[in-house]
Amino acid sequence: MKVASIIFKERQFNLFQDRQYFKTKIKEWLDCCIEGGTNIVVFPGLIGYIYGNYERYLEHVLDISLQYKDLYICTGSYFETDKDETYHSSSIITNGRICLSQRQLYLAKWEKKLGLSRGYEIQFTEINGLKTAILLTTDMFYPQVSRYLAMSKVDLVLAPSAIKDGRNMALQISGLWQNVQQNLFFAIESGFKGELFDCKFFSRSAIYGPLEMTDKDNGFIRLEKNDNEVEILTAQLDNEKRMAAIKKFDTLKQLNIDLYKDLFR
Amino acid sequence: MYMTRIIEIIYRRKLNKRRIIKYLETKASQNFNTHKKMDEIIVSCVQREIKLVSNVEEYIDMLEEFVLQAAERKSSLVAFPEYNFFDLLGLLPGFKAVNRYLNSKAGTSGEEGSGKGNKLIHDIFYSLSKPIQEAIELIMCLLARKYGIYIYTGSYFIREGKSLYNGGSVISPEGEILGTQMKLHLTDFEEQLGLTRGRELKAFDLEIGRVCCPVCMDATYYETFRLARNLGCDMVILPIANNEEYNLYRALRGIWPRVQESYVYGIKPSLNGWLFGMHFTGKAGIFAPVNLTKNKNGLIAISRSHEGNNVITAKLDIEALYILRENDEYVGDINPRFEKDYYISTYKGG
Questions:
Q1: B62, exposed or middle or buried, with CB in 10 Å at 0-12, 13-18, 19+?
Q2: Residues of chain B found within 8 Å of residue A263, distances taken between Cβ atoms
Q3: Cys-Cys with A224: which of A204, B120, B234, B277 at CB 3.0–4.6 Å?
């Protein structure tokens, strides 16, 4: 299965304030995905927020998805309102329908200041035989969420991210990379860069797999580089190769479950 | 059975208690008074190479050299690595020659760590575990008292009934064993060897703070460090002996991410060298959350090489850690509704 992660450029941030540019860019990304035979694409964190109204943003992605048959689009993240609550959310859309919506479970300090609320459930869907879930940006730093996904036998995690002060690569590695290594699923991260809510966000896009299956033995299948030209990271995800890697280092096999009864008291 | 009994007798003789006490008494005594209060916490961890010894005195000298270095740096605590007893296998008649042969054949059979002969290895370890445990604990207690320093012994085999554990002990500057922690998550190799895993993570109250001492593979699991935080720990000692070639990213799967997500200080002593044709590598280091480190990389101090001997020392600032826990972006949130049935929904209740 071929997957793609959009690379959001810092210089594009202001351009994306223009609705027409925004729509054109999304079409460009999707055209590129279809030409490359991509099955799943992940948009960056907070991109739906930049669009303005999240309902209109979702309508736009739902409409445009009809033109890209069988392509699964992870919308990136947006702020969703429901009654009096606002959530940091994301969805997976294909063929004009939402097949999964996910609300973020944990909040960063900046999200608390904005008065956001927490979701409490995790949804799953199956894409081309892989059990798939969304992991929103702050949840990457709460390892209990990734463990829940792994124990639910998730194969693939889609992760629109927006890491505050994330220019430091060490911070990003302490997020999704390490969760992939202790849970051994595939993950596709699409990172937002820009300034919102008086916060500077910087997340690199990356496609991750268990270390034992990656060419450089580093857990990165693909990683965004400082390259102005490349706008989309793509990779073939070989699930058999992942299973072989798990056989070499099967972390979940050695869980000491009786020990964890008081993990959350 | 007969052979293992003989091995135990050999080790009891060679690790004779009176011999250990007598040797340490004859060595020059120094009083460093490094034992400090909370206002300044300096800790050290040992990176060391396996060196098969011919007698217990060699082993004592080797350990004491590390304790001395830590004490000279005014450390309150010095931590030794996982499998801190391998050197004592040199006391087994003929072992050095066998080990040289296995090391020279390393990687040629394709059966490294495959589990063949594990029953025999288990029986040998079982038979020598008790005398080695008693010797290490005695040596470390005497060294802790001599230098007025907390010692984490590093790990060794601990025999309880018919079970064999991999665990280590914390010793007070007065030379008392404060407690012992068994390894909670075994490697496949240890499982094949027939080791038993621990059932509880313990916390130890030292004057410099509360500490937990899980072992090596335990750091592959976020749960271990979450439990350490639940127990009120600010420092976690994690002895390692990684049986693999050194790779930065492999090393990053251990204590480093655990420190980042749990906001504790991490102290990692490491064993390296060759044994049974297996190559152990790893850098000793002292770790902190990224925003508590000068270079924003989560490292306070780390060994330059993954091989050889080294003592890594650093000053820890617990107050700064508490402030960071309050203010950092991605820490401290709770989701009661998600967490309420987490154990059952995630682990299916065991």
A1: middle
A2: 223, 226-227, 230, 342-343
A3: A204
